[in-house]
Amino acid sequence: MQDKPLEKKSQSPLYQQLMSRLKNDIKAGIYAPGARIPSEQLLCDTYAVSRVTVRKAMQDLVQEGLLVRRQGKGTFVAQERIQRDLQQITSFSQACRQNGHTAGARLISAEMVNAAAEDAEKLGLPADSLVVEIIRQRLCDGEPVMLEVNRFPAKYAFLLDMPADGSLYEELMKQGLIPSSAVHDISLGHATPMAARQLGCQPGDALLLLDETVLDQHGEPLHLSRQWIRGDKYTFRI
Q1: Which residue has the higher pLDDT, 5 or 124?
Q2: Which long-range contacts (CB under 8 A, 24 or more apart) does 118-122 make?
Q3: 171: pLDDT strictly greater than 70
Q4: If you classify domain 82-237 with CATH, what class do you get?
Q5: Which of 99, 112, 211, 212 has the fewest Cβ atoms within 10 angstroms?
Q6: CA–CA dist 139, 158 (Å, integer)
């Protein structure tokens, strides 16, 4: 930690000076990915600044994605993000492997449900159809990153019997079905109570929200996907 006092007569606001110090410490490896940043009080004492200044600096670094807050534990340096190229159809498992990580999953539910109006429209199904719904918590190196809800036409019911931690796309490809193109809608979402429980955040916290309609090699609708994603763990390339 650079403990040289901040320049109170500088034209640069104190919170920006503190941000710069912390960024330099992270870049220099003083705080490695996953390391806990000193407490607000210690930063106040070290740099002789107010708690308001410290909180502003920390808040802006969280918004930049350099730091992440964990409820009841403190503030930590963000881990390297998984990068996924949306110009290619890539499963979560593939994206993890390509970034040198290990993918995992925890099954929340897998069942046949009544198709919603959006399901019927985008999957080209009659309004009274059933669809296969698979909801999973996705893990990277054992840490929750994503909550995904996938819905498939009922003819893909064999997916209900696959291992919870397996790749849906790999299972489909075994059946000769190749996810080949998709329509993506990315937005800023807010954690539902269920998403918050699964991702270790608070209800209402900002999350990335990805909605996809995926087509097979014949241009036929294969499935719909909605993913609530921790932005400190995942990024997209378009």
Answers
A1: 124
A2: 118/224, 119/151, 119/224, 122/213, 122/221, 122/224
A3: yes
A4: alpha beta
A5: 112
A6: 23
Residue type, 226: R
Which CATH number is associated with domain 14-77? Answer: 1.10.10.10
Equal fold, 14-77 vs 82-237? no
**pTM of this structure:** 0.66
Percent of the chain scoring above 70 in pLDDT: 90
Contact indicator for 65, 233 with CB cutoff of 8 Å: no
From CA 51, how far away is CA 45, in angstroms rounded? Answer: 10
Pair 225, 193: CB distance under 8 Å: no
Residue 177, pLDDT > 80, answer yes
The more confident residue out of 137 and 66 is 137
Q: Which amino acid is located at 66 in the chain?
A: L
The ranges assigned to domains in the chain are 14-77, 82-237
CA 24 to each of CA 18, 32, 59, 68, 237: distance values in angstroms, whole numbers, following the listed order = 10, 12, 17, 17, 26
Mean pLDDT value across residues 219-231: 92
Question: For residue 205, what pLDDT is reported?
Answer: 86
Cα dihedral 233, 75, 142, 210, rounded to 10, equals -30
